[in-house]
Structures are given as C-alpha cells and as structure tokens.
Design goal:
InterPro entries: Cupredoxin, Ser-rich/MCO-related. Residues 150-166 have a biased composition (Low complexity). This is Cupredoxin. Residues 134-149 have a biased composition (Polar residues). The chain is of the alpha+beta class. The protein has two domains: 2-148, Cupredoxins -  blue copper proteins (Immunoglobulin-like, Sandwich), CATH 2.60.40; 159-189. The chain is 17% helix and 23% strand. It has two helices and eleven strands; from the N terminus they run E-E-E-E-E-E-E-E-E-E-H-E-H. Strands 2-1-4-8-11 form a five-stranded mixed beta sheet, with no helix packed on it. Strand 1 (2-7) and strand 2 (16-17) form a beta hairpin. The radius of gyration is 21 Å and the shape is globular. The N and C termini lie far apart (56 Å). The chain binds copper (II) ion. Residues 8, 14, 38, 93, 95, 98, 103 line the site of copper (II) ion (CU).
C-alpha cells in the first residue's frame, strides 16, 4: 500500500503528518509537499538534522531535494520511496531550522522500550548545532511527480456523484441558482 505523509501543511506548520508511519516491505511512502519550501532527508537516530550518508556507515539515505511550492500552486510535488526493509528510517526537513523546530519523523520506529522514540529524536534534533542538507541530487524513486493540492480551493476537483444519483439534482439546482444570480447582477446594471 501507499502511505501518504504530509510535509508541512496549508497553515505553514513545521510538521510531518503523520510523524510516525508503520510500513511493510513492498509498501511505498509518498511525501506530499505543502508551501513554502520543505524537503526530506534521512538521518540516523543518533545524528538528527544530518544526512545519513554523513553520519553513519550504512550508505546514502533518501533525499528529496528542496521543494518550493507557492500558496497559489494547484499541484503539489510528491516524493516517493520504496520500503525495502522494516528497519527504522528517521527523517527530517533540511530547510532552514525546520529540523530543530520539530520537523522530524520516522518510518517503522523500534519498540518504545529501546528509548529510541520520535520524542527522543525530536528532543535531540532541537539541540542539533546545524541543519545539514545532503549534497547532490535528489535520490529516491519518483521525485518529480505531482498531485493536486487538496488544501487549495483553486485546485480543480471532479465532483463525485453519490451512487443513488441524488447528487445530480443538487448540482443542477446549484447551477440554476448560479444562473439566476448571474441574471440578477446583470439586471442591476
Ligand atoms: Cu520544512
């Protein structure tokens, strides 16, 4: 299955939603980027706000690159990764001081008994001296896709009619109402 993680939100909060995701091997994680400019990079638990490749011996982690999005954009960029193991994947936003300000998350956290929790990671991130973006190009599976922004009222949305067809009449009524309103405003001129 595909797990969606919202990167930021329409209110500009520095959050991932959800912060904690449980995924199976073969699942995908789709990060959806809200304004204004976020990113996701993988780190180790022990070195938050620092790219995995520079903090551990386990090789390069994922990196979305920076994803600038304006409030007017009706399409939002997404970044998708494959889940190839159930080992914990800790990640953060490498923009500004977003990591220190709590923009961190985890896929498949270890058992709470280890003490390696999202709260402990967040606390360590708050104390990190720097927020380091990975160097180089984005590395992931399909970093250039986009989806329509559900939070943007400008986004074109296809009306979904109820199965019983009752939606059609209310749509027609709304359309007739709009026509009447249009005629009224014309008459006022
Ligand atoms: Cu961010």
């Amino acid at each position: 299955m595909v797990h969606v993680i919202q990167v930021g939100n329409a209110d500009g909060d520095l959050t991932f939603n959800p912060e904690v995701t449980s995924a199976k091997v073969g699942d995908k994680i789709q990060f959806q980027f809200y304004p204004r400019n976020h990113s996701i990079a993988q780190s180790s638990f022990d070195s938050p706000c620092s790219p995995l490749a520079q903090s551990a011996t386990t090789g390069a982690g994922f990196w979305s690159g920076f994803m600038p999005v304006t409030a007017e954009d009706t399409m939002m960029p997404v970044f998708t990764i494959d889940v190839n193991s159930t080992a914990p994947m800790w990640f953060y936003c490498a923009t500004g001081k977003h990591c220190q300000n709590g923009m961190v998350g985890v896929i498949n956290p270890p058992a709470n008994s280890t003490g390696r929790t999202i709260d402990a990671y967040k606390t360590a991130a708050k104390a990190a001296a720097n927020n380091v973006a990975p160097s180089g190009q984005a590395s992931g599976n399909s970093p250039t896709d986009t989806v329509s922004d559900p939070s943007n009222p400008e986004a074109p949305t296809a009306p979904t009619a109820p199965a019983d067809g009752s939606g059609a009449s209310s749509l027609a009524a709304g359309f007739a109402g709009a026509l009447v309103a249009g005629l009224v405003s014309l008459a006022l001129f």
